[in-house]
Amino acid sequence: MVFNSLHFAGFFLVVYGLYRVLPHRPQNWLLLIASYYFYAAWDWRFLGLLVASTVVDFCCGLYIASRESPHQRKIALIVSIAFNLSMLGFFKYFNFFAANLHGLFGLFGWKVDFITLRVLLPIGISFYTFITMSYVIDVYRRHIEPTRNFLEFAVFVAYFPHLVAGPILRASLLLPQIAARRTISRSQMVEGAWLVGWGLFKKMFVADNLARVADAVFAAGGHPSGLEVLLGTYAFAFQIYGDFSGYSDIARGVSKLMGIELNINFRFPYFVRSPQEFWQHWHISLSTWLRDYVFLPLSYSLSRTLDGVRWLGLRDDFWIYATGTMITMIAAGLWHGAAWNFVLWGVYQGLLLVAFVLVGGRKRRRRPRGAGGSQLARALGMAAMFHLTCYGWLIFRAKSLPQIGDLTADLFARFHPSIDVLAARGLPLLFYATPLLVVHAFEAAHDDLAVVLRWPLLVRYGVWATMIYLIVLFGDFAGAQFIYFQF
User: Fold this and answer.
1) Domain boundaries, the chain
2) SS3 (DSSP) at 33
3) pTM of the prediction?
4) Cα separation of 184 and 189, whole Å?
5) C-alpha angle 311/314/319, rounded to 5°?
6) What is the pLDDT of residues 353-394, one digit of tens each?
7) Residue 311: strand, helix, or coil
8) Contact of 262 with 160, CB cutoff 8 Å
């Protein structure tokens, strides 16, 4: 069941109608039942994994809070992390590692017959395992008190708007809202309706149409020209943004309609000038999760190992940052999928972050006090960062490491201007991406994701009418799945 389907529309209308008339505790029961139905609609066989993760981490949280012994608390933490990572590792990475081991042994002429398992990937497993692990870690760190209400915890884990593709929520944000009686304000209704409509526009008009442009370039066995690779990569950049941020917008909008606030997951990420800014604006819930639960603990451990180390004239704090960043971003790449192109994408993102810290620090030391950047410099910085990001999307979208090499060679060695290519690839790209860029330009200029709602009434109606018109005439109504469902 996808947000852009009649199935979900009917499902939500029924759930929402009941939700508005029920008192608080029955509302929570309704949300739990609806969430389990929503998940089972994909594949009911994997519902047991979701329930198991909920039970294990609920019990681990209570056990940790009830113990003062550091040893006992740590054992419960290890049980939670081991359970979730084992479940995630088996279902997401078994096929990847088995295939690579088989290939490695084959290089030495060893014929090893592995038991072949066709392990299916349960939808949303990367998201809800991170959600429950962060809950237990926060309880262990004494950042939050564990809930003793299993119903509320189960709703927190399975809450259907964010269940299969995020945002990755923290217990400190969502659990208090589930525990408390909810009221729905007029502003939440207005903002919720806008987010649902804007999210559907991003998905059905922008992402699903640009998918055809990107797929034609990244198809296996193709030999695109450099210009086709460039335009196809642009198309994928806006496709994946429209697809994923569209899902997050719909999730936030549906939640606002029910009086529940979710965290913002995207803030116009292509209007930034550095990798650090990009990760503060792209998939924010994942980047902050990795910062808090991977990068910072890792950096703390490295600080005791690399204390006083100097190499190539760089201080130990740089090497702590660089090492922690590379490991964290490789983990981010693997989180996205079990394939070498995702590992390479993580390496690439890590190198960008480290390089910008290294170069940026030296520039700041040379820049005279009070020097500021002009509008032209800002625009050039954004354009440069956008193209660095786009090459990362080429790595991300490619089907294999050899294809990455071929597309890169095509991009730089076979770049020939062509009117036919511009007409076939460039014009659709311009048509589908321009409305998105116009709105985001206003949002970025005011640093306000809801800037459209502050415009005069007639202008707002014009925006709504344009969105509906474009969706009806050009939108993809086939109910295409969201890209991040595969992660």
Assistant:
1) 6-182, 188-364+373-486
2) helix
3) 0.88
4) 7
5) 80
6) 999 988 875 554 444 444 445 888 888 999 999 999 999 999
7) strand
8) no
Two tokens at 61?
Answer: 């949280």
Which two three-digit tokens encode residue 310?
């100097």
> What b-and-e string marks burial along 10-36, b requiring 16 or more CB atoms within 10 Å of the CB?
ebbeebeeebeeeeeeebbebbbebbb
What does the alpha-carbon distance between residue 413 and residue 133 come to, in Å, rounded to a whole number?
Answer: 46
| Residue 3 structure tokens | 């947000």
CA angle 328, 329, 334 (to 5 degrees): 100
For 273, half-sphere exposure in the C-beta direction (CA atoms, 13 angstrom radius) is 10
C-alpha torsion 387→392→398→399, nearest 10 = 180
Distance CA 98, CA 410 (A): 32
Residues 6+ apart with CB under 8 A from 17: none
Burial 210-249 (b: 16+ CB within 10 A, else e): bbebbebbbeeeeebbbbbbbbbbbbbbbbbbbbbbbbbb
- Give the integer Cα–Cα distance in Å for 166 and 163: 6
Helix (H) or strand (E) segment spanning residue 435:
helix 427-446
Just list the catalytic residues: 336
Q: What does each of the 487 residues of the chain score in pLDDT, given as a tens digit?
A: 788 888 989 999 999 999 999 999 999 999 999 999 999 988 788 898 899 999 999 999 999 999 999 999 999 999 999 999 988 888 776 665 556 555 555 555 555 555 555 556 677 788 889 999 999 999 999 999 999 999 999 999 999 999 887 799 999 999 999 999 999 999 999 999 999 999 999 999 999 999 999 998 888 677 888 899 999 999 999 999 999 999 999 999 999 999 999 999 999 999 999 999 999 999 999 999 999 999 999 888 877 766 666 655 566 777 888 889 999 999 999 888 878 899 999 999 999 999 998 887 555 444 444 444 588 888 899 999 999 999 999 999 998 899 999 999 988 888 888 898 888 889 999 999 999 999 999 999 899 999 999 999 999 999 999 999 999 999 888 777 777 766 6
Gap between the Cα atoms of 304 and 256, Å rounded: 45
By the 8 A CB rule, do 235 and 242 touch?
no
Q: In this structure, what token pair is assigned to residue 460?
A: 């707002």
Name the nearest CA neighbour of 83 among 54, 63, 61, 53.
53
Determine the Cα angle at 23 with ends 18 and 25, to 5°.
105
Phi and psi, residue 451, nearest 5°: -60, -30
Counting beta carbons within 10 angstroms of the beta carbon of residue 194, is it exposed (0 to 12), middle (13 to 18) or buried (19 or more)?
Answer: buried
